[in-house]
Amino acid sequence: SCGPGYQQRMVYCTEVHSDQDHYSYDPPSPSISDCPDPPPINIEECNVRECPPSASWRVGAWSKCSVTCGVGIMERNVQCLTDDSHLSELCLSNQKPQFQTPCFNNVCDVSASCSDIQKTKEVQTDGEYMLKIEGKVIQIYCAGMHSDYPREYVTLSSGEADNYSEVYGYRLQNPYECPYNGNRRKDCACKNDYLAAGYTVFHRIRFDINTMQIIITDLHFAQTVHGRAVPFATAGDCYSAAKCPQGQFSINLSGTGLKISEASGWIAQGNYATVNVHRSQDGTKIYGRCGGYCGKCVPQTSTGLRMQVQ
Hints:
The chain is mainly β. It folds into 4 domains: 4-47, no CATH class; 55-105, TSP-1 type 1 repeat, CATH 2.20.100; 114-155, no CATH class; 160-309, no CATH class. 2% of the residues lie in helices and 38% in strands. It is built from 1 helix and 25 strands. A hairpin with a 2-residue loop joins strand 9 (127-133) and strand 10 (136-143). Keywords: Metal-binding, Repeat, Secreted, Signal. This is GON domain-containing protein. One of its GO terms (molecular function) is metalloendopeptidase activity.
């Protein structure tokens, strides 16, 4: 369909002059010796169009590691080029070689707190830094680096959809029922008038670097979507006195290198309070459903909500 080639045709003798001046147009039957000589050519060269140039991915040399110590990135140039080294878009994207790869250069002298980073490295910029926690290097967000008291936060890489606290606002008219098998329905016989109701989502959570205890009341990197602010890992309602909790909280520490300590637990507060807490096997995810008339659940005050490295 492109480039140099050959085209063929069938050549045969169909018209023969006889002694009686009779012409025959039947398919070839006469002897070849009766046909005109030489016969027409039956094959010739052709070139319908020039073929587009072929192309392939070409890679350059890897760059130096982006950091002098710890984990960094190496990069290289990746281009789709034709045989004559012109840029092209003919290469398949799913076959493109990687242009970045992780690299490791020596073990860094890792600080143990944001305050250490501020003092030893003279850093005054808030941001993500690597800290050594319980013998493991963990990425921590340092805030207040321009102040005398920098603070440590964990950035919740799983997102706000998996890190929230809620106090449910609806209240049953008959608080001794648990309709719809405990499922929520806004068409229930109830009123949405609980003044303590609220829904808060969290982007980062603060913790004490010495005790590893989460400071659940710190809302610096939280957003209250509606109602009143609700502390981290807290849920409640004033829905029912019949063990029918509707308030919810969710914790997801996946991707942080940390998990909730097995020693951490939740206690009920208020009237007719019920606490249902489910923990993932690896301790990175906690889901709670709590409530009463009126009641809530909070982390145990004796131990607090503690984290540990995975």
